């Protein structure tokens, strides 16, 4: 009986292993077949994976964490000088973001996190382009330079991963990638204070949700707290794996692939007693892109939607700042 029990535990553990994918072949003209197969398996089955050999230097990632910690250690009055603006750039204070659109839980309490949001740097607002405009920058030495260098490299990585994702499901027409030449990018420097172990179960660092865009490329510290929901409803930990990014598929890529690549629920609960820092980079198409299942993915399961209109609904529902607009 013990042997059978251990066997079942081993099988359960195997099922819970988030795949690790070596993308060192991603710069080749034609992706290796094994890479396409591994990517498809990971994102059709789990929607999450650890990406290794991604080409982003550790020193640069460390610098991003350092400027994030410097920013979050500033007095609140200093951070509020760059408070979130109408174009969704700047400081998002704790208790000002609630994931009321969550399909996974009845969320009434604000997320227990604070963050700094950077998006694409436009010289000015562009007419008819939602969320266009310049970023806000705190007066921290090296802050802007570090984030701009990082987002430039992450944008390049995002384009490669999008091509890999579409090719992994067997698509031949990749013209949708033109929508990512001037992408919508979001770099979020997140700070999660510890939540008391005695806090209610519906108080989250980040409430259960799926990401609304295409790809999320996350680097996190070793404190833990990120959890992913399996197909059978269990929540499993996604700890830091040195040298990797945690990459997951969002709702828009799920729609583009007609449900083939999964947009998987996840959450953050930080009851470690320590501060947690993470830096997700979100890589999405231009906001004016119409999103619909691509040719070659079967009979459409989703109606066409405009990404800009979708974003406006999401941000107005979730952020105090956008409810004012």
Which word captures the global form? globular
Q: Biggest sheet: strands, sense, closure?
A: 8 strands, mixed
Q: Into which percent range does the helicity of residues fall?
A: 25-40%
Give the integer mean of the pLDDT values.
Answer: 89
Q: Strand order within the widest sheet?
A: 1-2-10-7-12-5-4-3
- The number of E-state strands comes to 14
Brief overview, please?
By secondary structure, the chain is of the alpha+beta class.
List keywords for this structure.
14 strands; 8-stranded mixed beta sheet; about 325 residues; about 20% strand; single chain; alpha+beta; 4-stranded antiparallel beta sheet; 8 helices
Describe this structure in words.
The protein is of the alpha+beta class and 325 residues long. It contains eight helices and 14 strands. Strand 8 (226-229) and strand 9 (235-237) form a beta hairpin. It is globular and about 50 Å long.
What is the strand and helix layout of this fold?
Elements: H1 2-16, E1 20-22, H2 33-45, E2 48-52, H3 58-72, H4 76-79, E3 90-92, E4 114-119, H5 143-168, E5 184-192, E6 206-209, E7 215-220, E8 226-229, E9 235-237, E10 244-249, H6 251-256, E11 266-268, E12 276-284, E13 290-291, E14 305-306, H7 307-318, H8 320-323
Helix pairs in contact: 2-5, 3-5
